[in-house]
Amino acid sequence: MSTLSTSIFMSDSKFYVYSKDGCGFCEKLTNFMESKGVNYEKFDLGTDFSPEEFLYKFGRQSTFPQVIVENKHIGGMKDTVRFLLDNKMV
């Protein structure tokens, strides 16, 4: 696969952001993603998933937000921004 087609494929990827109300990092990340045109869907604690589901999916030490793309757990805000930059998606 050429670099160009890999870039196109990755830029079409949808990110899944698990967040909660009042989370400054969650808001900063989604604002950044929106400003850069990153395709994402946000899920909110208490509405879209329970605390137990969050712990089961990400583990006890996980903080908000947590991000998944293409069934791969990216991590929190800094990890996600780094992933986007490293993969030349923004």
Explained architecture:
By secondary structure, the chain is an alpha+beta fold. The protein has a single domain (3-86), classed as Glutaredoxin (3-Layer(aba) Sandwich), CATH 3.40.30. Helices cover 43% and strands 20% of the residues. The chain has a four-stranded mixed β-sheet with strand order 2-1-3-4, with helices on one face.
SSE blueprint:
Elements: H1 3-11, E1 15-19, H2 24-35, E2 40-44, H3 51-58, E3 66-69, E4 72-75, H4 77-86
Parallel strand pairs: 1-2
Antiparallel strand pairs: 1-3, 3-4
Q: Can you give me a brief rundown of this structure?
A:
The chain is an alpha+beta fold. The chain has 4 helices and 4 strands.
The helical percent reads 40-55%
Superfamily (CATH H level) name: Glutaredoxin
Q: What is the CA-based Rg, rounded?
A: 13 Å
Beta strands, count: 4
What series of H and E elements makes up the topology?
HEHEHEEH
The end-to-end distance, rounded to whole angstroms, is 21 Å
**In the CATH hierarchy, what is the architecture at level 2?**
3-Layer(aba) Sandwich
Q: Can you list the strand order of the major beta sheet? A: 2-1-3-4
Q: In the CATH scheme, what's the topology name?
A: Glutaredoxin
The biggest sheet, with number of strands, parallel, antiparallel or mixed sense and barrel status, is:
4 strands, mixed
Low-confidence stretches: 1-10
Helix tally?
4
CATH class category label: Alpha Beta
How many separate structural domains?
1
- Overall pLDDT, averaged? 89
What share of residues are in beta strands? 15-25%
Shape: globular
How would you classify the helix and strand content by structural class?
Answer: alpha+beta
